[in-house]
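so the lab meeting is tmrw and i was supposed to have these ready like two days ago... anyway. pasting both below. for each one the top line is the aa sequence and the line under it is the structure tokens. i havent really looked at them closely yet so no promises
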Amino acid sequence: MDARLANPRGFCAGVDRAIEIVERALERYGSPVYVLHEIVHNKHVLEDLTSRGTVFVSSLDEVPENGVTIFSAHGVSDAVVREGRERGLRVIDATCPLVTKVHDQAVHYANTDHEVILIGHPGHPEVEGTQGRIDGKVHVLSTVEEVEALEVADPHKLAYVTQTTLSVDDTHEAIEALTKRFPTIQGPDVKDICYATQNRQNAVKELLPDVQLLLVVGSANSSNSNRLRELGERYGTPSYLVDHAEQVQEAWVSGVENVGVTAGASAPEALVKLVLERLAELGVSECRELPGKLETVVFQMPPELD
């Protein structure tokens, strides 16, 4: 049995930046450092940062006066920003710059009297943060059926933005349905879709014709990791999301000649190596990394930590 390793995989520039922000804050200010929500959606990253003095909170009420507070990579609403300012917290914003770009696009559309549609999953922290940046109603949808049922005030004053952890492939049906029903709708260029989400899906597509099993390293609440697993399933390949190596079951690899391995954008490479070690125990004799798109994106640190 051989393993094929997708490339690129794992951490994207936004996740790298968010984790480094927490690490630099711990070095500069000491512990505890408070992070609103999960800095990224990966259990192992959170456990590591917690062991080093990071406290993850669900609301700013849990942060003491003058507490160093970091907003997660998924972004927050205007109300949360105001609350942090009013309480005098020492806030550092780790929002991914690509999420900030979506915020700016959505605000621009709203300020030009467009009704905003957000293609994404209700309840996801990024979606809630984007909704909270816009005055007025925001329609959140992701399916053609939801587009067909959509009721709007003026069909000629519509615009859409997308959740960054969805790829062009994930959103194209909804966008196609929107443009068909509302021909004058405005939206961002395809190139504005998160590069990392698309690259990781493209890399899995390269794997799938040659493997009989797909393992995606990532946590269950990671949107982009789940989309990678779903991609494999749509191709007809048994696909599993694993948070740690022990979850890989011997029965999964029975009769398999080639297994594909990838990782979501919030999963560290150390976990991939552990999964490969587990596969070696189960009979993988060779691991080959596929050539892939080189990612050179690097985001600047916030001024407080530069």
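ok protien two:
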Amino acid sequence: MPCSAEQESERGWVSREVEAMIAAWERGAQVTAQDVLERFAEVDDEAAIRLIYEETCLRREAGQQLATAEVVARFPLWGAELETLFECDRLIRSPRAIALYPEVGEMLGPFLLLAELGSGNSGRTFLASDPALAHRPVVVKVIPDDQDEHLALARLRHTHIVPLFSEHKFPARGLRGLCMPFLGGTSLARILDDLAEVTFEQRTGELIVKVIDRHTGTTPGSLRGDGPFRRSLERASYVEAMTWITACLADALHYSHALGLIHMDIKPANVLITMDGQPMLLDFHLARGPILAGEPRAGRLGGTPGWMSPEQEQAMAAIVAGRPVPLAVDGRSDIFALGLLLGEAIGVLNSARNALSRQRRPGVSLGLRQILKKCLAPKAAERYDDPAALAEDLRRELNDLPLRGVRNRSARERFAKWRRRHPGGLAWGLMVLLISLASGAALATATIVYYQRVAQVQLLLDDGRSARAGGRFEEAIRALGRGLESAAAFPAPEDLRESLRGELRLAERGRQAQDLHRLADMIRSRHGIELPAEAEGQPLLRLCRTVWERKDQILAPGTFLSADSERTIRTDLVELAAIAAELRVAYAPPGAVADARKDAIRWLGEAEAGCGESFALNARRDDFAGLPEQSGTRANGVVPRSAWEHYELGRYNLRIGRLEQAALALERSLDARPQDFWPNFYHGLCSYRLRRFDDATADFRACIAIEPGSAVAHYNRALAYDALGRRDDAYRGYTKAIELAPRLAAARLNRGILCYKTGRHAEAVVDFELGLEAGPDRELSGRFHLNLALAQLGMHDKRSARLSAERAVTLGCAEAAPLLDELR
């Protein structure tokens, strides 16, 4: 269709501006799309997007580091169109043609590259030494600088996921480096390749270990492992080994899915078997959140042909064709790929590789085939609901227990499992049979019933133990309670009863610890710096007292969880004791302050006796006792040593206004543990209060990388952007915070003010009215009504503006009084 003269003129205008922008960059003047857009009152969408894309290309050509997500964030009005454009750009642009990859023997930043371990679409991986740490061997994955795999990896800390040590940027090369531990070993793909010439009958777990040793021995700096994982592999059959590896990967995926990340590229090449036999998941460069059916633009999506679920393949085809995604793509897509991985490894897939073959393999039971059939169901709804359920069935198969997610169809197989669980059971049964022949049918029947009931109680014990180990304490308590009830109904063996009671004590303590941690984290997020108003604080004080009265039960001598859980329990109790002590003093009537201080000091002493010395306790005890202030680098004369002690001291200094000392203590905490959320968060607050707004945005960006679902992190980064005058970024941040926490009134207020300042008065009114519906406190309500009055005045609605201003004055907002006088 021919263009109109007006359209042709518009296109000519854009072309001239693009040419001028290119010429300016060649002269060294970095003219931006924003500079051009600000000179024109009205620009259509197509022209704006072209200008923004041209600036992006110019920055790349100049060797500047560029994250396309930041470009989208700068221009939220065209965010969806830009995401689609950049996705197409990634498909047609070869990263290797832009990024300057290093070679073995080169220094890359602080790393000396020793050997190349592998390469793929997402980058190249090197074995390197770190001269700063006694030439410790590390793995450095080098990727193009527009990839964001590090944001996914930074959030993941799991036994079966390779962790991220640090991220390094190399803008001159257009690269970033991800530093990870060197664990030796080799990929599952290489193991399967090496075993391809070995018949399935001849394969064993010991042979897998030999393949690992052969590959590890060719890598510089490798050491032979000798851990429990390796010994388990050596003793296992081949099918048992692959089943166990898959169960471990399912555990890792369950953890990743709980954080909202779907891997999207499960295949043998992305599984590392370390030199001590530990399976670990690699390569999260395609990881992303779930995709809903009908999404018109699903953003970045990738995968490896032959290793994708049907719905993932259809989604990719739809995106390429510009159509909405036909089916949801969620965690069940990873379960399909995991089924492909296990089926391929044990040789039971047909030629199409998406269903089971009829060929029988030695060691592959009917139960295992049923598990795989469920994983490979064409419809996602027919697969396991989550990887945890798959992992449980795989382990039940390994331990000869009845399966949960599929039918146990073979009576013969069930009997064989029972015999393996009870090696002497058949002999005992025969003896019972002989006795029954002599003593009569009644005794035989009673004996059989007895052993059946014992088996049922044992199964409940196994279920309870599994649920407790997975952190599902309510489920564990229910199963173990049923087990004790069943055991009480007949003379069950005493060792079985004692095992049930012991597991129940652990499960109940685990539930208490879980509830305690939720309460402590709520206190850290909402009241870490400022105490709540009395109306909110009094119920919190009563709750803390109630929990504190049960501290002896929570500490429960003789009932031990993991070492990390025990430390967390003590840390959380300290948090409760500290806030309770402060609230007790803060809300004491004027004549009872001295008694309140004594109570507070007593609580702090009890906390120290039960949980050990803490800077949080020492600092508050000094304060309540009226001791002279310390230098800000110690509490009660003690210098902090651990990352947590530096964090506690930093947070306390921040609370009492020693900002520089707080920042120093928090920096030392982050030096030791940069992956912790709270030190990053409070360092961001320090930076903001010290007016170091660029540092604050970096701190809150780290928080978002660690916990993307944290509304408070998005909100505080938006505040820092607002202070820097980056209004588009601030608007995007407030919007994200509201999406995550719709009742976060402060985000509504600040976004509304941004809209008001930029002349979008109607949008501002909507934000202020919705913010008031969230039920803010009296002071914040007054500010809402004041700004609502200003926005209504901007819309020439003087009557509504006067009513809002009157309400603001009634709520004690002094700033509203001059406006009300003017309106009257």
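from a quick look at the 2nd one: The chain has 36 helices and nine strands. Residues 742-824 form a domain with the Serine Threonine Protein Phosphatase 5, Tetratricopeptide repeat fold (CATH 1.25.40.10). will dig more after coffe
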